[in-house]
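Final paragraph of the annual report: two paired records, presented back to back.
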Amino acid sequence: MSTLVLLLITGLGLGALYFLVAAGLSLIWGLMRVLNFAHGAFFTVAGYAGFFTSAALSGTSPWLQWLAGLVVATLTGGLFAALTEIGLIQPLYRRPVGQVLVTVGLALATLALVEGTFGSDPRQVALPAWLMATSNVLGAAIPNTRFAVLLIALLVLAGLLFFLRRTRYGLIIRAGVENRAMVSALGIDVQRAFTLVFTIGGLAAGLAGFLGATYYGTIDPSRGTSMLISAFIVVVIGGLGSITGSAIAAVIVGLLQQFLNFYAAAGVGDFAVVLLLAAVLLLRPGGLMGGSSS
């Protein structure tokens, strides 16, 4: 029973991490039809920004270090995303191949720069005592980092759904997902909405970058790439443009990986996720909630 509970909560925590990365990808594709392969770079750069901010405050309260790192990482992800959209994506909105090439190039260049500057070895992240501890749930010792990531992901999901459904720009984004030409014809500045969506996606990726370091206990340059691959799978399974679909798919993927990798063999869970992706593409190409913008 304790093993089942441990795998369940750990899988939910991993799914929460996937969701934070996938949510930005889903938003960006839903409105802008941009496959942003640089999203993993936002994750990586923001994670390192948070790590060094936390390290710079060494000697102060551990919670202050962690929270400062979290805030700086989130803002760094948003800033990086906004600059990318303004400087690289805006000139290429009518050139999808150019978008793919420039975002892949940015991702590769960023990874090389981070590795060249900081090395490829994992770095240990300093965490408050509570985050390094465990809590007993039905006999299972659950790392508190899982609860922290899960709680923050739920808050982000609620915030995104409120933004999309209850705010002016959220309604513009949802309308743009359905019919971008109509929104532009009404005189609405869709370009500003594009930049806002890209920035929100970057904020979520930046938040995930530092939470990923919290979840695993270390940070390294390659984790952004692996998270990007998982996030793309989540977005496709959930339905491109659907935040709720991404949340559901992230939970499914996280649980599949945890349970099958433990009960079958290492790697079986990852293979099962690929099979699930193939099944969704064959049976429901639009994803679990394809066509929904929230």
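The closing record of the year follows.
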Amino acid sequence: MTNPLRAMVVCSLGICLMLAGCRKQQAASGLTPVTLQTDWYPQPEHGGFYDALLRGYYKDEGLDVTILPGGPYVNSDQQVSVGAAQFEMGSSDHVLQVIGNGVPLVAVAATMQHDPQAIMVHQDSPVHGFQDLEGHPVAIRLGSSTWFDFLVKRYQLKTVREIPATYSVANFLQDPGYIQQIFVTSEPFFVRQAGVPIRTMLISEAGYDPYRVMATSQSFLQQHPDTVAKFVRASLRGWHDYLVHPDDVNAAIAKLNPAMNVAQMNFSYEALRDQHFITGEGDNLGHFDPARWSSMYQQLLDLKVIQKPFDPATAYTLQFIPTAH
């Protein structure tokens, strides 16, 4: 484990302990306790949830919300399955995959209309399109290769290969031929800080376009629909505010995750806002399009990621979106 990663893990554990202490103090408040398990350490990509917490939107709905930071060793699905968390951050392709594996999750609203996942290459790289990946190694994070399988099949790539990625851009900076998986809201900041010109290619441009979602278990949804409605309503209210007034929320996030500096947070926030990842084309905050879910489901079937067919409409619900608006 590298020193920066060790520091983040220690930070994450500290946050968990701090939030657990807050939970004990608030247990007698009369609010309904709810836990959200995020997909990474506190960052602007979680801004709407922290906005709702900071501005009291969850409390207005009668909820006592704890936000647990994720990381490379946190299994959000397991947390939700065993009831250690009621909600998790994820993606529509992941939700479909785990349902196919027998884990009964359901997405209740979109956090992002489009996924900022991309491939990053050096400015002078001969790779100008996904078809040009032929013959090149691509650094990919373990457990996140379904989109890569899609690219291989769509562009009939025969000699492209995966190599394990690290949680930094150090290898990229040292090797002009290096290609790696990124979020366009994150890694480009560090590379540009180092003065290295780059190009990025969003995976969604290839036709693999999952939502980023908030999800819960089927059982929790069935037993506590009112709580789910309140959580979605407050969360989307927070996302709406965060896109307009991020500064105080970013300051709060920085206290939870000192590894992020102001410039980095501004970069991430501006990428989220300016490239319309949260709202999509127009004001689609939180919305799902059933056709996109069906298309993603079919892509996963074609890739044989889903072995046993099921109704993709069971992977999401539309019932809370109008309420949230």
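Residues 1-26 have pLDDT under 50 and may be disordered. This concludes the annual technical report; the extension proposal builds directly on these records.
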